Amino acid sequence: MRVELLNVGDELLRGDIFNGNAGWLGRRLTEAGVEVVRGVVVPDDTETIVAALREALERADAVIVTGGLGGTSDDVTRDALARAAGVALRRDPALEARLRERAVSRGVPLRESALRMADVPEGARRLPNPAGTAPGLRVVLPGGVAYAVPGVPEEMRAIVDEHVLPELAGTPVAARVLRTATVWESVVAARLAPVEALPGVRLAYYPSPGEVRVRITGTAEDRVAEAAALARELLGGSVYAEEDLDLDRVVHRLLAERNATVAVAESLTGGLLGAELTGMPGSSATFLGGVVAYATPLKHSLLGVPADLLAAHGAVHPDVAAAMATGVRERLGASYGLAVTGVAGPDPQDGQPVGTVHVAVAETGGSATVRSVRLPVAGDGERARGPIRRMTVVHALDLLRRHLLTLDSSESWAVTAGNREEPG
Amino acid sequence: MRVELLNVGDELLRGDIFNGNAGWLGRRLTEAGVEVVRGVVVPDDTETIVAALREALERADAVIVTGGLGGTSDDVTRDALARAAGVALRRDPALEARLRERAVSRGVPLRESALRMADVPEGARRLPNPAGTAPGLRVVLPGGVAYAVPGVPEEMRAIVDEHVLPELAGTPVAARVLRTATVWESVVAARLAPVEALPGVRLAYYPSPGEVRVRITGTAEDRVAEAAALARELLGGSVYAEEDLDLDRVVHRLLAERNATVAVAESLTGGLLGAELTGMPGSSATFLGGVVAYATPLKHSLLGVPADLLAAHGAVHPDVAAAMATGVRERLGASYGLAVTGVAGPDPQDGQPVGTVHVAVAETGGSATVRSVRLPVAGDGERARGPIRRMTVVHALDLLRRHLLTLDSSESWAVTAGNREEPG
């Protein structure tokens, strides 16, 4: 089953509203084993929609249309469907009565244009809308079937899940996801060459700063499982999840399993590391708090980093990271202290170039483990700031993860350190 | 000038990656007076891309293609452009040399497929990429011009802004932007009814958690300026910028003008407030650091919030916010202390419902000013967490802004407090 998406709306083309419906539909259909062959966005114009419907059904078996089903004059999807089907629009007495009843019960006047929502192309099937007023419509056109749903995300999702997907669903594709941190996409891809060579599976890489998500798909469950197992072996400790789970949740789970807590000391990230560790509900079970020592003297006064160390080497030094981790752990009474210091740019700091980052983890009664890395600087300094800060968070979380799992952490860092390649 | 967008990538159709590039391009082009007539997403398939290019240039004067310019085997946009132009691909010696140099300097082997990034359709113009490796390409095709840019957002944006928009820009529409914080979209729209009624201008509202961006456009510069002046007057102190400037930068500027600094104390935001204040280069001039006192006892031990206050009222109380602001200001030696405490959810805390938030600002020798607000909870608790945390940051920054400008802050808060409306 091949499906095309047709999203209707001037506001989508102008970027006033981001087209989240296309992404949701793409993922939902793919999961249901339906191939999405194209996505098209067109303005609120009847002729254009009619043409797009015809083109879509030359390529695909069905088209899902979102938007243009409301009750204002620029909602023309119904007219376009009728014209494409070569039929007339008929006002549905039951729908009309419902619209009038609603208006009366709310004590608001009914706009004449709102009655357009009761218009249905002859022969079309109404798809009940559990979340709103305008029903979806199923219309048989030359070449295939069109499913039209409102553009309001909640209504669109409800109608698609209840009435559209059950009709379209094919053989679900078998899929596995592996998520890795602190190893570049090209390194991941190089290691997975033997998996790429396996018959019947397809690999896709989705990089984000500091991370790569690998998706393995195929039609045969056992082949995909076998490929995933090989990939897992080849990637080793850099894989932090074998499902679609974020790194912060993995770290939270590892800490919770050990009844352990963490406190963070931040410099260049300004609070991002703490923000990441508190994004999920229930994070208070493992996250105690943090200190953002942005100004250098605060690293001494708030975290106990030796003043002579700061005077001799500045704030960007492995020993400073170690002292920050130890200091925050002790002061906040956490099982683990996690610290980052470095240069986000745009200018070098204390003689260190932009992208120089040291992360450290300290534990009760133990010394601190430090990893130093030179992160890639993309574009000019100001633009690189965001990715560098984000990558620093990923590297810190991954260091704690490897520490908790007693995994070798030199592997990823050896790859990373000195590697100036773009992160994907 | 009519432009069509063509986004290439299987991952977009499957919804693995959200097509943010289309939204960004739509907004950018619209602002530049260019009409976006259609948006199309196609898979990584040469034939399909060639067909889509031809169709696009039957409808539009130019097409902007994103994606498929990387160095892996599924990056086929270059091949498609060459085929659509009826020319061959030629390896560019300068680009190839640059790729080889990069690989050597990094000490990594150069994959043969990565050299594809040096391939250029004959006659195409390279569009330098300031943020990455693969250049953009400008190719003249039958029917119009194709601009191909990488799918990586930073690279796409840089090349479009520097090389594509200057060529495409039409008669710019006169435009003014007003940015407001802590007032709901419906309130902004109601206040601006007299501006809506003016002839020759069009208003658009772009809400985000805690903020509304108002854009006033028209063809006559003087009418737009007049409308903006009236809007400014009607919106009063809730306008934090009359240009496209983020709230954190406005606060930074106000602090810098006063040679003042700020330190933050955070609870539910976990570090987001500090992260926001350090997002921009040069933030160290005004931001000293912060304390994330996520666990309640840390509010006492790290910030000096009276233990009996915490015992009597819990952590979510106006007096706790005030004590946090005062405590962090004193301990970090800043001109101002800014603090937030509240309930991000999904569960109530200390008897306070989700969305209860107190923000406070303290200054040298002065008592703290506290504002309390009940933020709207959208969707189920877990989904509401992100927006509540984001709105809390906006409310805190806006309180400091109003404090620095000695603006009445009850106005926005009176509107906000008890108002359970969705933020947009």
TrEMBL record, chains A, B:
Pfam families: CinA (PF02464), CinA_KH (PF18146), MoCF_biosynth (PF00994). NCBIfam families: cinA_nterm, PncC_domain. Belongs to the CinA family. This is CinA-like protein. The lineage of its organism: Bacteria, Bacillati, Actinomycetota, Actinomycetes, Streptosporangiales. PANTHER family: NICOTINAMIDE-NUCLEOTIDE AMIDOHYDROLASE PNCC (PTHR13939), NMN AMIDOHYDROLASE-LIKE PROTEIN YFAY (PTHR13939:SF0). Transmembrane segments: none annotated. Residues 4-171 form the MoaB/Mog domain.
